[in-house]
Specification:
The chain has 60 residues and is an alpha+beta fold. The protein is built from 2 helices and 3 strands; from the N terminus they run E-H-E-H-E. It has a 3-stranded antiparallel sheet, with no helix packed on it. The chain starts with a strand and ends with a strand.
Length: 60
């Protein structure tokens, strides 16, 4: 199964609380921090909810 490399490129400060919690649930704490998650519908939904704050790359 493929994986997603997710990078926080914009701060969630000043955003809605639900967006802040979504970023935290993805495991992102600081700007430019990267995490790798399995590509599944749950993670895709979370990424879609805060896509304006993230950069996402697919890994083979």
């Amino acid at each position: 199964m493929s994986q997603l490399k997710i990078t926080l490129v914009r701060s969630p400060a000043g955003r809605q609380e639900v967006q802040k919690r979504t970023v935290k649930a993805l495991g992102l704490r600081r700007l430019h921090q990267q995490v790798v998650h399995e590509d599944n519908p749950t993670i895709r939904g979370m990424v879609g909810a805060v896509q304006h704050l993230l950069r996402v790359e697919e890994l083979a």
